[in-house]
Amino acid sequence: MTTPSRIATVSLNSAVDQTVTVPHFAVDAVNRVEAVRVDAGGKGVNVASFLAHFGHAVTVTGLLGRDNAALFDRHFAASGLQDCCLRVDGATRTNVKIVDPERDTVTDLNYPGIEAGQRELDAVASSLDEALDRKLEWVGLCGSLPAGLAPDAYARLTARARSKGAKVALDTSGAPLAAALPACPDIIKPNIAELGDLLGRGLSGPVDAAAAAREIVAGGIGLVVVSMGGEGAVMVSADDAVLAVPPKARIASTVGAGDAMVAGLIHAATRGLSLAETARLATAFSLGALGEIGPRLPAIAHIEDFARAVEVTALDLNDA
């Protein structure tokens, strides 16, 4: 008998992640591919995979295209994820990352995805309800929305999860993020540009990010995490604020780095860690993903080593 899932992720716009390594990549020229890797991905799938890597029982629900679902079938089975995704007509989109290790650049080509409507969202909501009935602790709502879904899709799913006692981590941007805030997800993780867009002003650096995050927390969000690339991440709760800066490290690929941070935040919450400890661990998850080709994490011992190397500084909320 399998262990009941205590975490679920919702992946409405999954993706096939194709990572292509091309040394000295050039536009408008013939390029030689050195290596190719193809993975089942998308934010919700990646977050689930990273959490399973740390021993959590995780259910994945959402939408997958029938035409290329076999890749996801194999991944879910290999990762020990409970597959509750709805198969729909068409193919799950492909995202291509062209990695140039010589110039340390990554070029993204993101394809359009499948279309969905209210019927598909209702089916996903019903699948989530079945998981929630097993007393979930956390639900991760991750990624963009496919064409055809209204911006309030995540707001509805957030309200549904919270009404049944689960906490919600939301990682999206634009109109879906704005629409979901009144439903009060427990964690949101915009990058600094996305947070600026949400508030209608430009943001620059940790102080700006902390001040903006504090405004969102005042509206009823438990934790706002603002990623800032190489500058680290600002994390603000009702009582505390910290800046987490990772050590310099080799970047093999950016695929799944943000998703790894979301998984780290959920994992830290299940362990009841302080904000400073959460910042170290979630940053270490992200750092671990940056060192891997494709959406994966290194051994847990390496993540723990990374966490010890993350520099965490308390921020004065009165200055934010």
Features:
320 residues, alpha/beta, UDP-N-acetylmuramoyl-L-alanine:D-glutamate ligase, 11-stranded mixed β-sheet, 4-stranded mixed β-sheet, Phosphofructokinase, transferase, 1-phosphofructokinase activity, nucleotide-binding
Tell me what you see in this structure.
With 320 residues, the chain is of the alpha/beta class. The chain folds into two domains: 1-171, 3-Layer(aba) Sandwich (UDP-N-acetylmuramoyl-L-alanine:D-glutamate ligase); 186-320, 3-Layer(aba) Sandwich (UDP-N-acetylmuramoyl-L-alanine:D-glutamate ligase). 36% of the residues lie in helices and 24% in strands. It is built from ten helices and 15 strands. The chain has helices at residues 43-53, 70-79, 118-132, 153-163, 174-180, 192-199, 205-218, 257-270, 275-290, 300-309; strands at 7-11, 15-21, 35-41, 58-65, 82-83, 86-88, 93-100, 105-110, 138-142, 167-171, 187-188, 223-227, 233-237, 241-245, 311-314. The strands form two sheets. Strands 1, 4, 5, 6, 9, 10, 11, 12, 13, 14 and 15 form an eleven-stranded mixed beta sheet that branches. It has a four-stranded mixed beta sheet with strand order 3-2-7-8. Helix 1 (43-53) crosses helix 8 (257-270), helix 3 packs parallel to helix 4 and helix 8 runs antiparallel to helix 9 (275-290). The relative contact order is 0.14.
